[in-house]
Amino acid sequence: MDVLELLRASANGYYNIFFSDAWCQYVSKQIQATMYWYGALLVIGVLFIAWFLYFKRLARLRLRDEIARSLSAVTSSSGGDHRGLRFRKRDKMLFYGRRMLRKMKNVSGQMYSSGKGHKRRAVMRFARRILQLQRENRPLEMKTVEPPAEYLEETMEGSERVPPDALYMLQSIRIFGHFEKPIFLKLCKHTQLLQLNAGDYLFKITDPDDSVYIVQSGMINVYICNADGSNLSLKTVRKGESVTSLLSFIDVLSGNPSYYKTVTAKAIEKSTVIRLPMQAFEEVFEENPDVMIRVIQVIMIRLQRVLFTALRNYLGLNAELVQNHMRNKGSSTLPSTVVGPVSSQMSQTSQSMRVQPARTPASPMSRHSREEHTLSDPDPNPNANALLFAEVHGDAPYIDIYHQQQQQQQQHQPGISSAINIPSSRRSSASQHAPSQAESTSANATTTTHAASITNANVNSSPNATPTVTSIDQRLVQSSAVESLRRELGLSEEDAHIIEPVVEVRELEPNVTLITEGNADDVCIWFVMTGTLAVYQSNADATRAAKQERQNDMLIHYVHPGEIVGGLAMLTGEASAYTIKARGNSRVAYIRRVAIYQIMRQRPRIVLDLGNGVVRRLSPLVRQCDYALDWIFLESGRAVYRQDESSDSTYIVLSGRMRSVITHPGGKKEIVGEYGKGDLVGIVEMITETSRTTTVMAVRDSELAKLPEGLFNAIKLRYPIVVTRLISFLSHRFLGSMQTRSGAGGFGAPVEANPVTHKYSTVALVPITDDVPLTPFTYELYHSLCAIGPVLRLTSEVVRKQLGVNIFEAANEYRLTSWLAQQEDRNIITLYQCDSALSPWTQRCMRQADVVLIVGLGERSHLVGKFEREIDKLAMRTQKELVLLYPETTNAKPANTLSWLNARPWVTKHHHVLCVKRIFTRKSQYRINDLYSRVLLSEPNMHSDFSRLARWLTGNSIGLVLGGGGARGAAHIGMLKAIQEAGIPIDMVGGVSIGALMGALWCSERNITTVTQKAREWSKKMTKWFLQLLDLTYPITSMFSGREFNKTIHDTFGDVSIEDLWIPYFTLTTDITASCHRIHTNGE
Question: Which residues form the PNPLA domain (predicted)?
């Protein structure tokens, strides 16, 4: 039909006004010409299609004929000598495989149920794997690699080998410290071999307690004899274990004979026992006084770390551990000017002093002259003496002279500390480990008498402190104090000149604090001359704030005139375990820690008197526990106990790290938990009397204390309050286990399981390449850690400076190990900065580390070097985390993180760290030390990546989880802004639905302005309804296909993976097929 005619005739010619005849004729001609061209093109197209189909059919026929000829040639060649084309099997499989794959593609668009679709996808994956077909432009994915077998399996090699007799004894006496080979051979000369039949007594009540017993074969039962005649088993001693009391060891060496009062040992079966008399140690100590100091210090340290930690923190015993009145060491009568009331001191100055001998009959060793134990003559350089003392006495690193002198300098120069304006704990650590400027002052200035001052700042600033007595009374009181302390330290009258310059006297009013619990800077030996001191200890269940404010402190005991206090902290070198206050008007004499260490250098024998003073204060309960406790030393990979074994004891981790692994019925192994210093392992199974549910092994070289079941039963019967404590402990453990299992969606985890904690005690820092600024990185991390607590940075140079250039030799193995363990006890975390080569120090760092931080440059190549692979072999069971550094000046963002992680399957976590300019500035070691000596005096930026990493390592990370709610998710932006204004750092983010989007924006940008802008742009895109209408689909599982929504997400973030975000991030989704949740920590 002619359109123009219709237009001309319609509406009675109304359109004639707009369409003229000339114009209509022109349009008609153009349409006719165009139709001719369309017809010609259509004919050409039909001819081309026919030609194409013809040749395609012809090619297919040729291929079929070729295949037929090939098959006929193969058939004929098999029957005769004819040779022709052969259709190889590989070609045949390839041909039919591709044909099958084409058919699968044709049906892939059809709708199948979930089960058939799963099978179809499995067949297609199988076909691609056979035919080696790769998908083009396939995005990089995270490789899921199972941890190596060594990561989850304990070492079995040599665990069942029976060591020789000498090794039995060597392992048993390690509780006294380490002895060099010549000393150990001297001790072996005194050993005796005892043969016991079943029922024979090894020792019984009233027998001398003067030997160390090591069971070579058989079993020995150690039990308590109660007053009513009943017996209660403490522990069963098996092959390789020992029976001894460290407290009795100190009694014997101090010349105080000890006897068994409540403990008896009887053979359960025929047994062979090695007996080592304690008197054998006296000969060794006479020739090696430095060994004696080391042994006493080790005993005191383990007394505090094991007995007090177990009985106080886990069983709730405090005052039960000490006696309110000490056992009499002797009697002393002080002059009335000393023992009278403080108010009458001024009028009683003419009476003479009468002091009776205070020492008990001395041991053969103590009858020798004290001067024979002098190591060397006094050195005119006090600092040299201090450092020499630290080097001569192997574990004398417990006596950190350099650290004490630095603190004394700060005490005498208060302007320095106040000008720094940082916490005291950070001042002490920073002054100790920051690059030194001037390292010494005169020791005389730190040890002279200050009659008007006291070490503790609380006493210095107390308004209640009274002025000291002057004139002749002051001299009389001073001489009385010197004489009393001389006798308490066991010094002869000829040695009075040694302590006379260092004894200080102070008069106190009620409630004046001498030292607070946890303070390691003001440790002194306190001797009460008049009045009474009260010793307090914080409640183990109190919060951190309550402990800092000294709320709910428990009274432990009183210290009366003639008694001494402070010996335990002095010998261990650790912080004070008690708070000491004046109960009323009192007068005390004291000696500072540095002065005591200088006296100890000249007269090593005083450690026995100090140790004996500590032992006399302990209650009989502690002595009974001392018989039952054992110390275990495990190398990396050794098992503490194995799954399905009987549970007759629990363990306390003193140093090192343990890993708990469960083996499922199918043989698959899974990590259940990890335990660090101070954790209790295996207590739930022991109390519930069930077999071990997991295998616990040492991740690195570790030291544990073993508490047998019998000891727990004895304590429960004597102190019923312990039962309440245990019920509370088990309830919290069981509740945490239930929460963990419900969160994991399963109920297969044992009750003993605790989630893997990320609170580490030791961290090793390893560079990937030589150009990594490891020293500045370590300083920055150290700076951030100082805001959390005391921290130590160790390098090979620092260790050699402290312990000598030969410290890494095999002969000094135990000395180095003990010193490092003591440093770990003093600090919440220790940083081990490794060398850039596989040196002995690097190997030591791998053995000591709870976690290894592999530090690299994020903008460099991700290839793995030879040094990295060697590190992985050295520490296969140690957790490793990757740290990538980015310069702040380039505004670079993390990218290609997946390549780094896929190349390092041993890495369990990664961190992106944005570094300030000073880290990448190339400077000499001296200039770096000088720079950071000033940086460490400033406050760290709590929002920096270094602070985030520091909080992760110490288990103090702050997480943010954002919920869903659609448009209500816009409120998340306001909350993020409020959190930033409040100064709260965000260390990790999780989210669901709209919360996942907002959380990912923050992790990617970390700038509230940019996050707000991108969130606004995304919200505007979501308001375009026509785009969402185009996204409608058949409503099987949802109304929309999600393509448009995913496009808006991609437009907002770009090609960014979760691994490339600055802050650790995860999102939560629902699996509607399995009806469970899924946690996503990787992907785009």
Answer: 960-1084
DSSP string, 376-396: SPPPS-HHHHHHHHHHHSTTG
Mean pLDDT value across the chain: 74
Clarify whether residues 609 and 721 are in a common domain. Answer: no
Q: Is residue 310 part of a domain?
A: yes
Which is it for strands 649-655 and 513-515: parallel, antiparallel or unpaired? unpaired
- Are 460 and 443 within one domain? yes
pLDDT tier at 443 (50, 70, 90 boundaries)?
A: very low
Three-class secondary structure of residue 752 per DSSP: coil
Residues 477 and 515 in one domain: yes
SS3 state at 361: coil
**DSSP letter at 754?**
-
Residue pair 244/176 in contact (Cβ under 8 Å)? The answer is no
Q: Which domain holds residue 1032?
A: 959-1080
DSSP H helices, 909-1056, are: 925-935, 945-953, 971-981, 994-1005, 1008-1022, 1025-1029, 1043-1053
Highest mean pLDDT among 83-87, 347-351, 681-685: 681-685
Residues 6+ apart with CB under 8 A from 808: 796, 799, 800, 816, 840, 841, 844
Q: Which of 10-17's residues contact partners 24+ apart within 8 Å by CB, and which partners?
A: none
Reported pTM = 0.64
For residues 649 and 695, membership in a common domain is answered with: yes
CB-based contacts of 139, cutoff 8 Å, min separation 6: 1084
The answer to whether residues 685 and 796 belong to one domain is no
Distances in whole angstroms, Cα of residue 1017 to Cα of each of 186, 876, 1014, 1057: 82, 48, 5, 21
Model pLDDT, residue 1028 = 73
What's the mean pLDDT in 634-656?
A: 85
Q: Compute the distance between CA of residue 793 and CA of residue 780 in angstroms, rounded to an integer.
A: 11
Q: How is residue 21 written in tokens? A: 């005849």
Residues 595 and 394: beta-carbon distance below 8 Å:
no
Indicate if 421 and 309 belong to the same structural domain: yes
What pLDDT shows up at residue 323?
76
Residue 23 domain-assigned (yes or no): no
CA distance 1018 to 1023: 9
Residue 414 within a domain: yes
Structure tokens at 208: 């001398």
Q: Are residues 431 and 456 in the same domain?
A: yes
Residue 619 has a pLDDT of 84
Residues 6 or more apart from 314 whose CB is under 8 A from it? 680, 683, 725, 729
Cβ pair 681, 733 in contact under 8 A:
no
The pLDDT of residue 605 is 86
3-class secondary structure, 192: strand
Q: Kindly report the CATH number assigned to the domain that includes residue 677.
A: 2.60.120.10
Q: Is residue 49 part of a domain?
A: no
CB 275 within 8 A of CB 215: no
**Partner residues linked to 243 by β-bridges:** 213
Please state, in angstroms and as integers, the Cα–Cα distance from residue 254 to each residue in 102, 330, 785, following that order. Answer: 92, 14, 43
Residues 351-403 have pLDDT tens digits of 333 333 333 333 434 333 333 333 233 333 333 333 222 333 333 333 333 33
Task: Report the domain count for the chain.
Answer: 5
The residue among 953, 984, 1007 that closes a domain is 953
User: Sorting pLDDT into bands at 50, 70 and 90, what band is 124?
Assistant: confident
Beta-strand (E) ranges in 482-532? 504-508, 513-515, 524-530
Question: In CATH, what number is assigned to the domain containing residue 869?
Answer: 3.40.50.300
Q: Quick: pLDDT tens for 178-200.
A: 667 777 778 888 888 899 999 99
Is 959 in contact with 794 (CB distance < 8 Å)? no
Same-domain status, 292 and 308: no
Per-residue pLDDT, averaged over 478-500, amounts to 87
